[in-house]
Write a structure and sequence with these properties.
The protein is mainly alpha-helical. The chain has one domain (about 5-290, about 340-425). The protein is about 70% helix and about 0% strand. It contains 17 helices and no strands. The chain has helices spanning about 5-35, 40-55, 60-70, 80-100, 110-125, 130-150, 155-185, 200-215, 220-240, 245-260, 260-280, 280-285, 295-315, 325, 345-375, 380-400, 410-425. Helix 3 runs antiparallel to helix 4 (about 80-100), helix 7 (about 155-185) packs across helix 9 (about 220-240) and helix 15 packs parallel to helix 17 (about 410-425). The two termini are about 25 Å apart.
């Protein structure tokens, strides 16, 4: 089945969404400027400085742009992610104008069109327009732009590796700070430099497996053990958020790797022993609670039951973005049972986009994973590429009790990785068992 559309149709659809993006950015930036503070200005100036220094010494490319953007994950701010996506798209358009003979296409054109259709309906039905637009940007526009831009850009395997390295460096630094913050604030759940202790765990899970993959890939023993060490720092940063699903996701991903890779089995045993030795007492206390003692489990069960009732009433078009949190508070028998979302990303998208929109969304995700796996399963460098797949699957596993991949910071790294996989898969002559750079559609 051919999922690639003609160049002009893809470009027209992206042009339409570019206009929508500009309109949304106008709203978001206007709102942000009304409440901007000194810390926000400082963060923006730091990012601008990092970009300036980086591009003094490096050529401006799409993959190259992603590298300095990893600094955003030190201290996430919503407006920085809007700026990131906008810059990527504008740089791509500028390169497209410069090279008019360069043909473009949008992979999974018809499926993305379906998602966009149901996403617009979900935005229209949203209780609050601002929240609806933000969800449209995160769930529909961000995946479409990242897939489109990376797929149609010159690809450098070396720069992809460099991007992953810097992402791991950031995650390990944030994890190190998280451990210190947790030790000095033992009665609180603080997500290191992030706002919450939940969303950061998806970042940790993702970066943990990427760091492992980089370790597997290194031939130098010093470099290999360096990335193993960073993996452990990220893991302990995760442990000190006291979040069980993150730890389960790591175990699940480690099992997937261990089934195929002998090297992982030894590392998994070491990690398990270290976790058992250093696991925080509060994590042990939470794990020891049964279903009736743990309020978080009860909250999720109530949310899931109520979600399926709403899904039965709105199976095709869904109830709209973020409508849930404004109606659910009147449905729960006790206030402490309230949840802002259904605590399961599959249920959330089924609830908000409807059955067709949700199916199209996850078909793209799993089809990219499967096609990439078929490409790399016989490669000599399978350990690294398999770690890329496991990083994605582990995040999806963690989304069984949360909605990480529809949170903008996680959605971006999630879809960037899928775009890398799709790009390498589509390059039929690409030998993934060694570096080959650049690869382009020219």
């Amino acid at each position: 089945m051919n999922y690639l559309a003609k160049s002009n149709r893809a470009y027209n659809l992206l042009s339409f969404f570019l206009v929508m993006l500009i309109l949304m950015l106008s709203v978001f930036i206007a709102d942000s400027l009304q409440t901007i503070n000194v810390s926000s200005i400082v963060k923006l100036l730091v990012i601008i400085t990092i970009f300036t220094i980086y591009f003094i010494f490096n050529e401006i490319t799409i993959i190259g742009l992603l590298i300095p953007f990893t600094a955003i994950y030190l201290r996430p701010a919503k407006y920085l992610y809007y700026i990131m996506i906008s810059i990527l798209l504008l740089v791509f358009i500028a390169k497209r104008i410069y090279n008019k003979n360069y043909k473009v296409c949008l992979p999974y054109f018809y499926l993305f069109t379906l998602i966009a259709f149901f996403g617009i309906i979900a935005t229209y039905r949203a209780s609050v327009l601002y929240e609806g637009l933000h969800n449209l940007f995160t769930i529909v526009i961000t995946p479409m732009i990242l897939i489109f831009v990376i797929y149609n850009s010159q690809f450098s395997y070396t720069k992809m590796i460099k991007y992953m390295r810097y992402l791991v460096y950031v995650a390990s630094l944030v994890g190190f700070l998280g451990v210190i913050i947790a030790i000095t604030n033992p009665t609180e759940r603080i997500g290191s430099t992030w706002e919450t202790a939940m969303t950061i765990n998806a970042f940790y899970v993702f970066s943990f497996f990427i760091s492992l993959g980089l370790a597997f890939r290194e031939k130098s023993m010093i470099q290999k053990y360096f990335f193993y060490f960073l993996s452990l720092i990220i893991l302990f940063g995760m442990l000190f958020t006291y979040t069980r699903i993150a730890l389960l996701s790591v175990f699940f991903g480690a099992i997937l790797l261990a089934i195929r890779l002998k090297e992982v089995r030894k590392f998994a045993i070491v990690v398990l022993l270290l976790v058992m030795l250093f696991i925080p007492a509060s994590m042990v206390e939470r794990a020891g609670k049964n279903i009736f003692e743990d309020s978080s489990v009860i909250i999720r069960l109530f949310a899931w039951v109520h979600s399926f009732e709403l899904i039965k009433q709105n199976p095709i078009f869904g109830i709209g973005f973020d409508t849930w949190k404004n109606t659910y508070e009147y449905e729960v028998p006790l206030y402490w049972l309230y949840a802002e979302h259904p605590h399961n990303v599959f249920i959330k998208l089924l609830l908000e986009l409807g059955m067709i929109g949700m199916t199209a969304y996850f078909f793209i995700v799993f089809n990219i994973i499967w096609r990439f796996y078929k490409l790399i399963r016989k490669s000599k460098n399978i350990e690294f590429h398999l770690s890329m797949i496991v990083a994605i699957i582990a995040i999806l596993f963690s989304c069984l009790t949360d909605v990480f991949i529809v949170k903008l910071p996680i959605a971006i790294i999630f879809w960037i990785m899928l775009a890398f996989m799709l790009k390498m898969t589509a390059s039929k002559d690409l030998e993934v068992n060694y570096e080959k750079s650049p690869v382009s559609n020219n």
